[in-house]
Design goal:
The complex is a heterodimer of chains A (114) and B (114). Chain A has 114 residues and is an all-beta fold. Chain A has no helices and eleven strands. Classes of the chains: A mainly beta (114), B mainly beta (114).
């Protein structure tokens, strides 16, 4: 396992459609995070899982967003009824309990809503 | 709300010179401060962190300084190389022992002049 992987890398969708992204963390990591990054800005925290439990959600995570990590391994982030303002890079990161604050980021999924 | 930010959007340095990237933060309750490097098309990469009870920490070619009196964080890169060209973000973590979503600043684009 060489790092965090995300699929797809790019997604173009029409406004109103639903999209789902997948994140595969580093295999021994029990913590998983989702962030959103728009051009020229730093990543913004969306949500955090420890194993399969979703422990924290940002106010940025509107009702149209849902994240799951059913078996405590990979995670999915779904956006329903996409809006143009959802266009951004969606980053996933993982870390391990007791190994400090370092979060390992994946390459991201770039979403473009037309 | 409280946030982490950076002083300069772009910093241009000569190859071989030392670089200093600055960051101001406002949340005095943050426990860790972290520097990330993000190259074009990639996710952020951890560089170094410092806990709030420290004022200096050194890594390989990098030094992070924390001044809690003025809520200022800096990253010093020694003998800057072309591979150091990237956007640098400071981020903060709360008191959750690493189990927190990070709050990122806006980033400083480091440009290396040959």
């Amino acid at each position: 396992d060489t790092g965090v992987s995300q699929n797809p890398r790019h997604k173009i969708t029409k406004r109103g459609q639903n999209v789902t992204f997948r994140c595969d963390p580093i295999s021994e990591h029990n913590r998983l995070y989702w962030y959103r990054q728009t051009l020229g800005q730093g990543p913004e925290f969306l949500t955090y899982f420890q194993n399969e439990a979703q422990l924290e959600k940002s106010r940025l995570l509107s009702d149209r967003f849902s994240a799951e990590r059913p078996k405590g391994s990979f995670s999915t982030l779904e956006i329903q009824r996409t809006e143009q303002g959802d266009s951004a890079m969606y980053l996933c990161a993982s870390s391990s309990t007791g190994q400090g604050v370092e979060q390992y980021f994946g390459p991201g999924t770039r979403l473009t809503v037309t | 709300g409280e946030s982490v930010g950076l002083h300069l959007p772009t910093l241009s340095v000569q190859e071989g010179d030392n670089s200093i990237i600055n960051c101001a933060y406002s949340n005095s309750a943050s426990d860790y401060f972290i520097w990330y490097k993000q190259e074009s098309g990639k996710g952020p990469q951890f560089i170094i962190d410092i806990r709030s009870n420290m004022d200096k920490r050194q890594g390989q070619r990098v030094t992070v300084l924390l001044n809690k009196t003025v809520k200022h964080l800096s990253l010093q890169i020694a003998a800057t190389q072309p591979g150091d060209s990237a956007v640098y973000f400071c981020a903060e973590s709360g008191a959750g022992g690493g189990a927190d979503g990070l709050t990122f600043g806006k980033g400083t684009h480091l440009i290396i002049q040959p």
